[in-house]
């Protein structure tokens, strides 16, 4: 090992391989080559992917009962499940499992991001990051609950029961469950908005005053995102998503002022 004196008089060490590692910024922060950061990020994202796959595997044995419950809650019991391909039932079950898998993987994603960036964070930033992990899971559960108990009943009521006078509904299992999982996962992700806004301000990525001044731009993005997220031809789900996003954004600004 060889030693090197920095401008402020501190000493840094480099390995025999010729790569210099030295501390900078937050206590314990060690500057490393870009490729080392990329490899570490890849490994941590691979861990999140493993959690996602494990979540699907764990939920799969219970997915059939879950599908029957969804069908009973939202679809007329007189309508039968229709499968138009041999694997449609299996793919529909996998899509429903994805909701559980995303729920347990989101906190793991934030935790792995914390482990990746933790060395460069100050102690107060690390404490804030650790609070984000359980909050992410709770917000996802709350978002999926809103989607399940409010949005889906309204959506299916207008799509099915008001179109029944003109045509007989024959629903594909996979397409129906695809709409359900999109709404549930979408609302779970949407409810992460307060965390993302507060996190961005706390980490210095965006200024609080900038968010306040650019409300019109933020609301435009919200409208575009809600149209992309919700597969509802009646536009009921899109309106609800846009309204909730606007409320969550204003709630995020309130949290920033409080904390």
UniProtKB/TrEMBL annotation:
Q: Which InterPro entries match?
A: TatC
Transmembrane stretches in the record are 45-71, 91-111, 132-156, 176-201, 213-229, 235-256
Membrane protein topology class: Multi-pass membrane protein
Per UniProt, the keywords (alphabetical) are: Cell membrane, Membrane, Protein transport, Translocation, Transmembrane, Transmembrane helix, Transport
**Region labeled Disordered — which residues?**
1-21
> Subcellular location, in the record's words?
Cell membrane; Membrane
Q: Which domain of life is it from?
A: Archaea
As for family, the record states:
Belongs to the TatC family.
Say what the protein does: Part of the twin-arginine translocation (Tat) system that transports large folded proteins containing a characteristic twin-arginine motif in their signal peptide across membranes.
List the PANTHER family hit by this protein, alphabetically: SEC-INDEPENDENT PROTEIN TRANSLOCASE PROTEIN TATC (PTHR30371), SEC-INDEPENDENT PROTEIN TRANSLOCASE PROTEIN TATC, CHLOROPLASTIC-RELATED (PTHR30371:SF0)
Task: List the HAMAP family hit by this protein, alphabetically.
Answer: TatC
Summarize subunit and interaction data from the UniProt record for this chain: Forms a complex with TatA.
| The protein, known as | Sec-independent protein translocase protein TatC
């Amino acid at each position: 090992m060889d030693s090197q004196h920095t401008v402020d008089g501190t000493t840094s060490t480099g390995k025999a391989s010729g790569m210099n590692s030295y501390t900078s910024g937050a206590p314990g922060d060690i500057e490393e080559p870009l490729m080392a950061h990329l490899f570490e990020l890849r490994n941590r994202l691979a861990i999140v992917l493993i959690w996602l796959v494990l979540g699907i595997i764990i939920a799969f044995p219970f997915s059939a009962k879950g599908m029957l419950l969804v069908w009973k809650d939202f679809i007329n019991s007189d309508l039968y499940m229709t499968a138009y391909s041999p694997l449609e039932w299996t793919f529909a079950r996998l899509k429903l499992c994805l909701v559980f898998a995303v729920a347990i993987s989101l906190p793991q994603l934030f935790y792995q991001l914390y482990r990746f960036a933790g060395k460069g964070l100050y102690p107060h930033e690390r404490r804030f990051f650790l609070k984000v992990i359980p909050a992410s899971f709770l917000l996802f559960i709350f978002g999926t609950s809103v989607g399940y108990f409010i949005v889906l009943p309204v959506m299916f009521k207008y799509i099915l029961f008001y179109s029944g006078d003109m045509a007989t509904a024959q629903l594909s299992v996979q397409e129906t469950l695809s709409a359900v999982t999109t709404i549930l996962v979408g609302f779970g992700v949407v409810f992460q908005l307060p965390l993302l806004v507060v996190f961005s301000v706390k980490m210095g990525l965006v200024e609080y005053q900038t968010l306040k001044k650019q409300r019109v731009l933020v609301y435009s993005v919200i409208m575009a995102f809600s149209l992309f997220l919700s597969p509802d031809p009646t536009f009921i789900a899109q309106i609800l998503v846009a309204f909730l996003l606007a409320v969550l954004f204003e709630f995020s600004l309130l949290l920033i002022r409080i904390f």
